[in-house]
Each structure stands twice: as C-alpha cells, then as structure tokens.
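Human: Can I borrow your eye for a moment on a structure tokenisation matter? Separate attempts, laid side by side, tell us more than any discussion would. Could you pick a protein and write out its sequence and tokenised fold? No explanation is needed for now; the record alone will do.

Assistant:
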Amino acid sequence: MLVFVEALAGLHGQVVQHDRSVAIFRHSSSRYNETAVTWQASVARVTSPDAPSTSVVVLSRWRSLAPAAVFLCTHQLGEAMVPIVVGALIDDAIARHDPFRLVGWLVVLAADFVLLSLSWRFGARFAAAARLGIEHDLRMLVIERVLDPRGMVEPRRAGELVTIAASDARRVAGTVRTLLSGAAGLVVLVASVVLIARTSWLLAVLIVVAAVLVLLVVSSLGRLVERRSHAEQQASADAAATASDLVSGLRVLAGLRAGAAAAARYRRVSSSSMRQAIRAADAEGLVAGIAAFATGLYLVAVAGVGSALALGGGATIGDVIAVFGLSQFIIGPLSALAACWPAMSRGRASAARIRQVLTTAPVLVPVDERSERRAPRLERGRRTAAPALAVHGLFVAGIEDLALEVELGSMHGVAVSSPDDADALVAVLGGERGFQAGTLFIDGTSASDLDSDRRRAQLLVWPHGALPPGRDLSEMTTGTPDANDDALVPAVQSALSALGALDVIERRAGGLASLVTEGGTSLSGGERQRVALARLLMERPPILVLHEPASALDAVTESAIATGLRAHREGLTTVVVTTSATLLAMCDRVTLVDDGRATITGCHDELAADNARYREVVHR
C-alpha cells in the first residue's frame, strides 16, 4: 500500500482518476438478477464516524515514541554531563596533581561519551521509525478516505489530495520529531538549572528567565507561522492540482492549441505558490532570528555573571568551566524548545487539512435494507411499473428543483444546456457528489434506503473520460487478462463490432493481448471511449448512465455507436447525458434541462421540430 501511495504522489493525481474508473468498472461479468434489488445514493449529513484524529494516529506509535524520548533525553543529559565531569576533573585531579584521580575521571568521561553516543544512535533510530510510521499511517488514512466507495460530499481535485497525502502527512510527522528534540531539551534544561544552582543561584535564575522569555516571544509569533504555513500548503495544493489537470488534458490542449494559455495559467498559480512559500519562510526566519538574538543576549549575560563570580572568588576554576560549558551547551536545548512552536504551528495547519479530508461526509451511506420507500409517480397513466430512475426536487450546483423520470427498459436522453450542470447531475447519480435537497429513486426505491454496494451493482454510471483498468485490451474490455478465452472473444468482438471499434484490435499485432500504457495514453481519445463502451456492453448492468460517450468520435463512428448501444441495451435501461443529436435521436424519450430545470420531455424529432431552445442546445 505504501508503494501505491508513492505512486499516487508521483503520478500527480492520475491514480485518483484511475481508481474512479476501477470503482466504475469493477463489477464482475456475472449475470444480474432481473427481479432486481434496488440501490441508492444519498448525501450523509454527518461527518465520517470512523475518522481518527491525528493525535490518535501519533499516539498509536507509542512503542517507537516512548523509547525515542527516553534515549534522546539520556543523550542530552550525557551531553550536559561533559562540562560537569571536566570541571570535576580539573578541581579534583589536575589541581591536586593526582594521576590516579585523573585516570578515574577520564574513565568516567569516556563512559559518558559512550552513553551519549549509544543513546543518540538508538534515539535517532526510534525517532525515525516513529516519524516514518506516523507519516505512513496518516498517508494511508487519507488514501483510504479518498478511495472509500461512499465518496465525498465535498470532492477535491486530485492534485490537492496528492499534496495532503504527501506533503501535509510529512509535515505532521516531522513536527513529532521536532517535539521529541524539544522534550529532550526541556529535560536537560531543568537538569542544567539544578546543577548550576549548586554553584550560583543568580546564574540559575538568569537561565530560567532567559528560557521563559525566549519561549514567550517565539510562541507569540506561532500564530503568524501557522497562518502562513496553511496558506503555503493550500497554494502548493492548488499548483499541484493545476499541474495534474494540465497533464491529464495535454492532448486536448495541444489539439485546441491552448498550450500557451494553459502554461500562463500554471505560471500564475505557481507564482502564487512561490509567494506564499516565501511568506511562510519569512515568518519562520523571523522566529528563528529572534530566538537566536535572545539566546545570544542570554550567553553574554551568563558570561558576564560567570566572570564576576570567578574574579570575586565565589567559584573554583572547575566550577567556572562547568558553568560556562553548561551555559553554552544550553543554547542547543533552548533553540530546540524555540523550534517547537513554529513546528507545531506548521503541524497544526497540516493536521487541520488532513482532518478536513478525513471528516468529509460520505455521499453514500449504509442503511437498513428493510426500510424501503417507493417513488411517487410524476405522471399517472396506464403504466404501473415504477420508473427505473427518478429524481424529484433535486438541488445541486446550478440545478434547481429538477424532476426526471426514466422508464424501465427504455433509452432516455438528457440534454443539459450547461456542461457544469451535466457534470453535477452525473456525479449525483454516480454517488460521487451530495446534493442540497431532493430525492433520488432507483427502480422505485428511495436512495436513502439503499447501501453503496447494492446500488453500484444495479446502477452503473460512466463519467466522461473514465477508462476501465487493465494492462491490455483484453483486461480492459472483459475484466480478465485471458485474451484466449474462447467464450469471451466472440462476445468482445460482437461488442466492438457494434461500436465500430474492431479496428482498435485489428490494427495492433497483439490483438486483444496488446498492452496498453498507464492511463490509456497509447490509445487515442476515440479508442479509449470505444474500449470503455465495449466493457459496458459486456457488463450489461440493469441501469446504465453515460455522459458524452462519443465526444471524441467522428459523425460516422458516433452513428455506429448510437445504433450499437440501442441494439445491445434492448430491454435494459440506458440514460445518455449528451447534447449529441445523433445519440439523442436513438433515445425513446429526451428531457431538456435548461437553466437547471427540466423544461420539456418528448422524442428527439418532435423536440427538434417544435422547440427552438432544444435546437439551440443540441445543434450548437
């Protein structure tokens, strides 16, 4: 799974789109039960109940954190003991000219160095294990939430999710490592104050006051660092998301000759990210500079007081050496403590972004299967069967009070005047997006009474641009890599033939066994659409929703696809969200959605002849 996460970061969000396709095409090719169970999609109004906080994730690594803290504290205490041992060696051995005592103190000094060296080695090892483990755990939580089949009410762009899963998780884990050093610094600071107090209470008080002042000044600037760090990470996520969008649409941009405009847009976003990074670095530099200045003043004050003690005869040479050594050494722990506040500010900002993803409400929710509300009819007539798909009073994005019914076993077209509204409608039907109000019924059963697994088995939604997963054409069209299966080959060829897509296989030497590059980049846009449609025809879901399934094809191939869809989906329910007149002409009924509302329903020929707005939307 760690490899998968690294691949996610490396592909700049392509894995997220790939998983979207996996979820869409993951159904087996087993036959569906015609007596149909019904499924549902509904917005959850509560946050994800099983989302742990980042603090819980951090504490779950206590087996590494606890020994890391102990060993790092021991290392710092060993460092603090060096000037103490040297001072004692001078007073007790050198001043007395006693070689035996000198040897004894040298042994003690050597033992101290062995202790602090081994403590650092094991402390750093446990700290690294804790940091990497926390980073991995947070990253996995984000990825699991992104790949949750229940979806997210507030979808995010792939590049932003990559930044959160990679950069923000790394920052939170890095904060834990900094806090371990700060904890060790606090322990040694207290120990040093106690040791120095044995020589001079004035020096001990001076150290305490200096430490408190440094920490107060640094902590007062922590909010500034946190705000700028959050803005930096958000700008970085926007830049990554923009880069992901550009890479995924590179061919389209090249075809439209819009590369210059796209590059200019990315430069603007990237420049904004750079400015936010500089602002965050300025804030951190300000905090570090103030901390360094304060510790420098502290060192000057300690040197002055220590010199006065030595000149006044209030301390021995060994005491002065020990005090000066400790005073200089304490700068390190003080700096470590000062670094904790900026680190915590950055960590809190990143943890908040991770938490937002983990607590995003799901679109699909598990329900009690015994509770089933039946769909009311929009029109009462001779038909008694419940509609295969019905939407009542839907409000989402630009769609307002949408009412739509699709008859069981029919091919129904939906012409939406706004591409954004079309995307929103398909996302709602596919369970990838929640809605403000309204009710969705599938085969007469309320969406709020169905769980995600049952829903996805009955209703298959193919978003525009989605591609079935697979390493070769056989796996992409059938779900199995066995291209020589005698039972599958005729069915695949029949599906491809109906779509005018046999040339996709024939022009490749390997046929169905031909390998396909990651993301289907070795296929043209039209080939990707036809391969995806072939897989859909092989699956034969009871209800199929397509979104612009032939947008990359010429008129002749589009006509073949319309005819093939009609023939292969006979007796099954098909919804085509498109503005293509060729596809809409094959539908039994067509609904025009204009300005977010269903304005008229009828057959394509009648609407094209009698409704000017329909002609404008479809024939533009």
In short: Confidence is low (pLDDT under 50) at residues 1-49, 367-384.
